[in-house]
Amino acid sequence: MPKLVVFGSVAFDSIRTPFGEANEVLGGAAVYASVAASFFTHAGIVSGIGKDFPKEWTELLRKRNISTEGLKIAGEKTFRWKGYYEYDMASAHTVSTELNVMEGLMPELPGSYRKAPYVFLANLHPEQQLHVLDQMDNPRLSILDTMNYWITNEKEKLMNLIKKIDILLLNDAEARQLFSTPNLIAAGRRALAYGPGACIIKKGEHGVLLFTEKEIFSLPGYPLETVRDPTGAGDSFAGGLAGFLAKAGAMDEKALRKAMVYGSAIASYTVEGFGLDRLRSLTNPDIQQRYKEFEKIVRF
Amino acid sequence: MPKLVVFGSVAFDSIRTPFGEANEVLGGAAVYASVAASFFTHAGIVSGIGKDFPKEWTELLRKRNISTEGLKIAGEKTFRWKGYYEYDMASAHTVSTELNVMEGLMPELPGSYRKAPYVFLANLHPEQQLHVLDQMDNPRLSILDTMNYWITNEKEKLMNLIKKIDILLLNDAEARQLFSTPNLIAAGRRALAYGPGACIIKKGEHGVLLFTEKEIFSLPGYPLETVRDPTGAGDSFAGGLAGFLAKAGAMDEKALRKAMVYGSAIASYTVEGFGLDRLRSLTNPDIQQRYKEFEKIVRF
Questions:
Q1: Does residue A13 contact residue A26 with C-beta atoms inside 8 Å?
Q2: Domain A4-298, CATH 3.10.560.10 — does that match?
Q3: Are B140 and B251 a contacting pair, CB within 8 Å?
Q4: DSSP letters for B240-288
Q5: Cα separation of B73 and A74, whole Å?
Q6: How many Å is the maximal CA-CA distance in chain A?
Q7: Is A8 in a helix, a strand, or coil?
Q8: Best to test chain A binding among B91, B184, B190, B218 (most A CBs inside 10 Å)
């Protein structure tokens, strides 16, 4: 039985960056997050795939001790995303998105998933996220990600969902938009007023911020001279975070801070390679090493 | 005899932000930096002022134990800067700059300044900065700031100067421009190749990065919910940094890191008020308190 349920997109990604390109490779938020989480815990993925989804990719997930019982064929074609990054790597430019099987997907959770104590709802329609959350049997911790599209078009549904979850995860632009302020500290504090016990704001190369009732934690980005492909960084962070918390069985301030360092460590590896390349060869000692480097980088 | 010489502009600033405005108030890089340094050490300011410069302002500096022997009347009118900040406070929009006495100013250093072991050359023409540096009697540590205008128009002179100094201070956009890379880590490493023992990149709300031969230190910004006026933040940081180093009499990695935290602490106070307002009432216990808050914010 998985300890962590990961719901989100599974995709064929086509990516171009100044360092190269990849065509129709395995991607999607739920894939990055569950692979990142698999370094710490037994994750179960929930998503829809098409008949075109290669069996090797399902096998790849299974070999990482990720339950794929929730990965169901839901139509002909798997979700596809095509995009590119400019030289500054700051943000993805989408060329095309084909929702295919993800459109309106309302998956039924396998019985073995329902009692999992941890759940990560990666970016999708708030109705889809709520549908999955509602099938969970009183999880100990729920983490929610979203994106600008839902903030613009489904704000009410999103806000209702935010009231039900424990950790809200956003990037800096989304936090500014959702809480109508240019100041991230104000945004983080406002988020807590809606109910979540914690809000985490992802700032890309500038690191991550954690807001809890009484404290703020600020972790700088891992200093990387070469970023080959930023795809999946945010979801790797979230998966690493959720996976570590599931393993620790804790959700106090100290555990949250450590989890953010582990999430950042994994995300820093993700972007060193194209798509999932670097994560596929990553080891726990690699992660531990980068955790220690974070300690050296921030101490004074 | 001052332990730290601070060279840079002294100005009448006119500032507008969403939180208010101020007309012809005391400002300028050398003022912010020497006031910030004065919490730690005996600083001596070098600059030019006009006949219109109020005696009370010179008195204000003297009362903070800042030597003003190097503050000479050099013409009719003091340097003037007028600018505003938008709601996001990210960057200053200049409305007008009147160089007045600062134009081509080549000050002669008072004898008492020449043996000072520390010198901070705030942003000005590289020829003016070199002119001051050349009059120093083998200082133990020199810190250089600059800006995009000189990178664009006086790059050769700037690069020659960079070879002579110990710490290069830049903001993120300047670092990217000067070292022709969007990646700040690459930029910081490239800076060291020109000779400085350290390069510090200022990232505004995202904090500061320190590059030395073998290490990187990354300090996040102090989480402020309200920024009233960002004017002088960078120079307060530099002055606090230089002042702490002068007091510590050290320049090893540990001292540099602590100096950056102290510089950031003072800068975080600067932006809480308009112009010099907050710095004028600031106390050493205030600074110490924020230093301790930084410890809490980054620990994991």
A1: yes
A2: no
A3: yes
A4: HHHHHHHHHT--SHHHHHHHHHHHHHHHHHHTTSSTTHHHHH--HHHHH
A5: 80
A6: 55
A7: coil
A8: B218
In the stretch 278-297 of chain A, residues with CB closer than 8 A to chain B read 294-297
| pLDDT score for A87 | 85
Cα separation, A97 vs B286, in Å, equals 52
Q: Check CB contact under 8 Å for B218 and A215.
A: no
Give tens-digit pLDDT for B193-228.
999 999 999 999 999 999 999 999 999 999 999 999
pLDDT tens per residue across span A2-45: 999 999 999 999 999 999 999 999 999 999 999 999 999 999 99
Please state, in angstroms and rounded to a whole number, the distance separating the CA atoms of residues B3 and B34: 11
Burial environment of residue A98 by CB neighbours within 10 A (0 to 12, 13 to 18, 19 or more): middle
Residue of A186, A167, A166 whose CA lies nearest to A176: A186
User: In chain B, where are the structural domains located?
Assistant: 4-173+228-298
**Residue B239: its H or E element:** helix B233-248
Is the full-model pTM beyond 0.90?
yes
For residue range A210-245, what is the model confidence (pLDDT) as tens digits? 999 999 999 999 999 999 999 999 999 999 999 999
Show Cβ contacts of residue B241 under 8 Å, excluding neighbours closer than 6 positions.
B143, B200, B259, B260, B262, B263
Give contacts of B253 with chain A, Cβ < 8 Å: none
Rg (CA), chain B: 18
Question: In the structure encoding, which two tokens stand for residue B220, read together?
Answer: 């996040």
Q: Which CATH class is domain B4-173+228-298?
A: alpha beta
CA–CA distance, B8 with A200 (Å, rounded to integer)? 40
